[in-house]
């Protein structure tokens, strides 16, 4: 089986952080989002993982090749024409082998082995509060009866969560080629949902796989929420003389904390120095210096310097904010 992971997006909702780092390499709980995507997939022993790359793709190539030893391939996506087009590029050199598609900017917590045992064609779904924002699946007797991207009048609240499995990939490849050649777009993009709906209309039986753990990493607020979720799962207690640590908190061993209050829900990257500060619900990057500050609900990029600040921050790498 092969796996396609689209990671070409520019991550505009996460600027300024994505001006220097591709979204999948931004860290949550001191680990890149891409690691949370890749690591559970290795249980499938994939023949190859194909990354569809775009914005700062050379950084993703470098990271994957240094960190992992599976067979990988990197396909450039020069035009951001939507998920359907990205998957089309990833499928180009395939014949009819099994393929799984997993998005590179969301964390899915599930047993991927069970996903492929669930059926020949499987779509990951989960209930959502606002189905207008997603591709929505309508079920009938256990099978997916229909799909619609961001419907004005949703027929269900089951959202496609970016997990797709095809025991045979030729029909998906053909459906995407027909969709692209037709010129049809939804919201200006070539949508994978439209290609899947075409397959359903032609008789393909998709089974739904309900996923409970689905965590978005596409904007500041969801990055912080996902960071909180992952920190909640850790059991360790951290004690630092002269400082108060309110769990859950994750602090890199190479960081130094003095006379500060951290937590709850704070992750601190390597080589950071925090003193005389109070920080909650925040992600603090590598080699950050924070002094005499009170921060909450903040993302602080690597190598930044913050002194005398009492506010919510969203600052990228090498930012310096010093109160006068």
Describe the structure.
By secondary structure, the protein is α/β, with parallel strands linked by helices. It folds into two domains: 218 residues, Spore Coat Polysaccharide Biosynthesis Protein SpsA, Chain A, CATH 3.90.550.10; 89 residues, UDP N-Acetylglucosamine Acyltransferase, domain 1 (3 Solenoid), CATH 2.160.10. The chain contains seven helices and 26 strands. The strands form five sheets. Strands 1, 4, 5, 6, 8, 9, 10, 11 and 12 form a nine-stranded mixed sheet that branches. Strands 14, 15, 17, 18, 20, 22, 24 and 25 form an eight-stranded parallel sheet that branches. A five-stranded parallel sheet has the order 16-19-21-23-26, with no helix packed on it. α3 crosses α5, α3 packs across α6 and α5 crosses α6. It is elongated and about 65 Å long. The mean pLDDT is 94.
> Can you give the mean pLDDT?
94
The CATH architecture of the largest domain can be given as: Alpha-Beta Complex
The major sheet is characterized as:
9 strands, mixed
Percent range of helical residues: 10-25%
Number of helices: 7
List unreliable stretches of 5+ residues. Answer: none
Strand content: 25-35%
Radius of gyration: 21 Å
CATH class of the largest domain: Alpha Beta
Q: What is the CATH superfamily label of the largest domain?
A: Spore Coat Polysaccharide Biosynthesis Protein SpsA, Chain A
Alpha-beta content class:
alpha/beta
Shape, principal axes of CA atoms: elongated
Count the E strands.
Answer: 26
Question: How far is it from the N-terminal to the C-terminal residue, by CA?
Answer: 58 Å
Q: What is the CATH topology descriptor of the largest domain?
A: Spore Coat Polysaccharide Biosynthesis Protein SpsA, Chain A
Query: How many distinct domains?
Result: 2
């Amino acid at each position: 089986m092969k796996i396609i992971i689209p990671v070409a997006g520019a991550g505009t909702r996460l600027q300024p952080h994505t001006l220097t780092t591709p979204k999948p390499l931004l860290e949550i709980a001191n680990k890149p989002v891409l690691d949370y995507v890749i690591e559970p997939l290795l249980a499938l022993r994939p023949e190859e993982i194909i990354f569809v790359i775009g914005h700062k793709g050379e950084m993703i190539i470098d990271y994957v090749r240094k960190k992992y030893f599976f067979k990988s391939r990197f396909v450039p996506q020069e035009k951001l024409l939507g998920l359907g087009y990205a998957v089309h590029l990833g499928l180009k050199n395939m014949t009819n082998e099994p393929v799984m598609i997993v998005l590179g900017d969301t964390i899915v917590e599930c047993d991927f082995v069970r996903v492929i045992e669930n059926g020949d064609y499987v779509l990951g779904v989960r209930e959502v509060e606002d189905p207008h924002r997603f591709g929505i699946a309508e079920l009938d007797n256990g099978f997916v009866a229909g799909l619609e991207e961001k419907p004005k009048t949703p027929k269900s609240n089951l959202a496609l969560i970016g997990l797709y499995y095809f025991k045979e990939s030729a029909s998906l490849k053909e459906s995407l080629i027909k969709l692209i050649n037709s010129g049809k777009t939804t919201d200006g993009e070539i949508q994978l949902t439209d290609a899947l709906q075409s397959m359903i209309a032609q008789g393909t039986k998709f089974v739904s796989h309900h996923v409970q753990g689905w965590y978005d990493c596409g904007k500041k607020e969801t990055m912080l929420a996902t960071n909180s979720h992952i920190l909640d799962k850790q059991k360790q207690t951290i004690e630092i003389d002269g400082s108060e640590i309110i769990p859950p908190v994750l602090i890199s061993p190479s960081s130094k904390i003095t006379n500060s209050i951290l937590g709850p829900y704070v992750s601190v990257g390597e080589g950071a120095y925090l003193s005389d500060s109070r920080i909650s619900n925040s992600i603090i990057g590598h080699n950050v210096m924070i002094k005499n500050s009170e921060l909450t609900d903040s993302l602080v990029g690597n190598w930044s310097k913050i002194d005398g600040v009492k506010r919510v921050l969203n600052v990228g790498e090498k930012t310096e904010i010093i109160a006068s």
